[in-house]
Design a protein that fits this description.
Blueprint lengths: L3 H5 L8 E5 L2 E17 L4 E6 L3 E8 L5 E11 L8 E15 L2 E2 L14 E6 L26 E10 L5 E6 L1 H9 L4 E8 L10 E6 L12 E6 L16 E2 L11 E19 L4 E19 L12 E9 L2 E9 L2
Length: 332
Amino acid sequence: MMNIKNIFLTFLFWGPVHILCAQVFTDTLYSIADGYIQYHYEDSFFTYIEHSGTMAVGDGGDPWGSALYSRGYFAISLDSLKDNEIEKIVLELYQQNSAGNGIPGTYPAFWVKPYHPPMIIDHILYGNHPISGDSLFWKDWTAGNEGDPNTLSSNIGVVTDDSVKGWKRLTVTQYVLADIAAERNSSRFRLRLTMSHDDDRLADNIGIATLETKYSSNSVPRLIFYYKNTTAINDINHIPSKSTLYQNYPNPFNPVTNISFSLSGPKTVFLSVFDLSGRLVKILIQGEKINGKVTIQWDGSNDIGSVVSSGIYIYTLKTPKQSISKKMLFLK
C-alpha cells in the first residue's frame, strides 16, 4: 500500500495535490492570501499585516502602549478544483505558537470569563484589491459579525482551544459547497477568539501559519476535498470545462518558473505578472488566441529586462469571460 504522507510531502506547496490510494481521491487547495487586522481600540485605528508568516489572533499591546486585539483572514482559491462529486471538505490550519498573559507556549488566559476563550471561524467575504481582490481594509473588521453584509455564516465552529502545536481541523463541507454553488472563485474565512480582550495589554493570542511561514513550506491554510468512490484521477492534460490557471512550478523559484493554464476552447488570452501593490511587472502573453493547455516560462525579469526583487508576485490569466490570479515567490 502506498504511503500517503510520503506522497504528499513530494508536492510543491501552494499548488493542487491529487492522490489516489485505496480508492480515495483527494484534492488539497492552499491559501492564496492571508493576513490579520489589529484594532487599537483605545485609540480607534487599524493596522493591517499581510503575508507575514503568522496570523496573530487575540489581544495584547503595541510598542507604543496602545491596547489592541487581532483577527485573522485568509482565502483559498477554488479555481483548480476538480469536477468530481464531493463527499467531505476539511479545513486544516497549522497552529505554530500561542501565549497566555504574555507567557509563550500557554493558551490565552483572560482575567474575565471565559478565562480561556476558544478560537472560532467565520465564513465571510472580504478584500478589495484591484488586481487580486485579496488586500484587507477596515470594513473587513466586522465581516463575520451577525448582520454584517459580508458575513456568510458567523461562528461555524471551534478551530482550537489548546496550546498544542500542530494541525487543527474543522469540517466545512456545507460552507465551501455554498461558495461553489454561488460561483465564487475562493472560500474566505475570519479567525477570532470568542472574547476580544481583557485590557491588561499582555499577549493572549494564537499564531496560525500563513503564506510565508519560516516554520514549514507546507503549513499554509488548506482545504482537503474528499471525493466519493473514485478509482481514477482526472488526467491533468484533459481539456477542462472552463479556463484553469495552475500553480507555477517550481515555487519558490530562481531563476525560472513555469506557468501553465488550460482553456476549454479558442480564447483571446492575456497573461501578466503584477507586484503586490498591483503594478504591472511583465506581460507574458498579450492578446493571443490560444486553445488547450499552454506552459510559459518567466525568468523573474520585468518589461525592460531587469531582474525583479525577491518577493511575492501575482500572475493573472484573463480571457473575455474570466480572470484568474495566483501568487508565486521569487527568491534571489
